[in-house]
Specification:
- The complex is a heterodimer of chains A (about 170) and B (about 450).
- Chain A is α+β, with helices and mostly antiparallel strands and about 170 residues long.
- Chain A has two domains: about 70 residues, Alpha-Beta Plaits (2-Layer Sandwich); about 60 residues, no CATH class.
- Helix content of chain A is about 45%, strand content about 10%.
- Chain A is built from five helices and four strands.
- The two termini of chain A are about 20 Å apart.
- By secondary structure, chain B is an all-alpha fold.
- Chain B has a single domain, classed as Formate dehydrogenase/DMSO reductase domain (Formate dehydrogenase/DMSO reductase fold, Up-down Bundle), CATH 1.20.1630.
- Helix content of chain B is about 70%, strand content about 0%.
- Chain B is globular and about 75 Å long.
- Classes of the chains: A alpha+beta (about 170), B mainly alpha (about 450).
- The interface between A and B is large, with 61 and 60 residues.
Chain lengths: ~170, ~450
Amino acid sequence: MTNRVHAIFDDPESARRAMRELIAAGADGADVTMMSSEPYLESGEVTSETQGTKIPYFTLAGGLLGAATGFGLVYFTAHSYPVVTGGMPLVPPFTTGIVMYEMTAMGAIFFALARMLWEARLLRLRPVREDYAPEVADGGVLVSVRSDGDAERWRSILRNAGGLELANQYRER
Amino acid sequence: MNGKGKQASHLTNERINRDLLGPVLATSWRFYVLIAVSGSIVAWALFAWGWQLYWGIGVTGKRRPEFWALYITNFVFWIGISHAGTLISAILRVMGAEWRRPVTRCAEAITVFALLIGSMFPIIHLGRAWLFYWLAPYPNERLLWPNYRSPLMWDFFAINAYLTGSLIYLFLPLIPDLALVRDKATGWRRQMYAVLSLGWRGTETQWHRLEKAVSIMAIIIIPVAVSVHTIVSWDFAMTLNPMWKSTIFGPYFVVGAIFSGIAALILAMAVLRRVLHLEAYLQHKHFSNLALLLLTMCLLWFYFTFAEYLTAWYGNEPAEMAVFWSKVRGSYSPLFYTMVCCCFVIPVPILAFRRLRRIPLVAFASALICVGMWLERFLIVVPTLAHPRLPYNWRGYRPTWVELSITAGTFAYFTLLYALFTKAFPIIAVWEFKEGLRHESAAQAKSEAVPVIAD
């Protein structure tokens, strides 16, 4: 279990101020996290957490793979059992295009979802038990910072910035 | 005006959580009554279907030449209703319409349940329903290969793509709210919501990735939604039957689907607003905006219907005229004129005049539109099949108790699924609503800060 210091703030501005002070005092940006029950992305970011998403590229790749799968499904099925079509094409472009269209969408959706889950580090329950506080649900903004020997310093900064320090993160009810 | 006095700006974080999570965390006796009533009707419908499976498809009113009747009517109707949610939600999200926030989840849930119900009908329609998996495109050793040139196979792909996309599009924005319920619930519910919320903590990365993914999904899902009902229309338009072979059937069906979908959404919202006391959330402005959208679709639907009937009448082709006259002055004319009244004559003044555009009246007009659009689907499917090109095959169609029971059962099933969803999940997106309130007050503060130039 990673040692972390947590403090809850009433508003995102105070939380961001505390995060800036923590980073100015030497905390690594990657070790400081803000958690809230609603997004505050419009008020600017302190760390680089929201940069560098590859979801659009994965969506594109998924779409291309879906289209290829759609074509392959039609092509190989038709050629595995070539029905008599009276001279008409076995893999007509119009009808194959419809299957490819739907498979493109399916591929794009699945890949976007998979990449989103990966980048957001979802499907993992452990961080919730170790690095979270249910006070977030009441509208509080939680700031969490990794504390390898600097716990007292971080506590003092968070307290001075107006944060209410939390003793333990996730109390089982 | 109902609910006009209650402004969302007075809502506190605590009250929003209490109001919107309340139905999930506490259960009223009315919920059990609803479940018992709708569950009983569903049970009766299941009995009717069991009867059909045991005695064969002959227990229905389907005879030569009407091989597609009530079941395919229901299929087209429910797939149409599914356009209420994901499509409308996605369009509003892409356009950045702020008022969408309390509406989106109600709408997206309709899509998923309507699609589930709609996609049951091709299976119910089959004589030997247990062989439904033959529709699926998988290699097999029976030398039965799926025909990719058939619109029925396109249906399989389109409906599956739309259902998958809609489920994901419904689930993604639900994750933060599931985490909210997790933090408020106790006991086994807490465990259940902990699993469902996938470990959501609301970090900046998670919010950013969620919004990115939802935006991308919204863009992808719009063309898929349009394709679904276009392909459903091609089930008909690709045949050479009178009044089916039409180049505008695709857009005609899509317009009809969005039209009936918005009507279903308004109806669901009106019921939720009253039953769950959501007056402060589902306000008059939401109904008014949707009513204007409904009016637009109503006029578009009328235009397409007029174009369809005009070209059939002007062409004066004997086979087409037989179908045409059966609807306009024949045995189907009572249904036809009821459809016109329900879809156009009565709703237009209600939706067009601001004084009439009140929540109960808009809900009434929406209910009429749902009835009218069901009749429209029936009038597309049955009269054409009842009047094939060879007149000695003409025959009337009368549904049996089996078909009527199954039809009633699907409406009850929809109610049941929607009630269970409302019980298990917040029917209004809590985080989206709070975010909208914040945007609203920020915009208000900005407008107040603009200096007024004195005369």
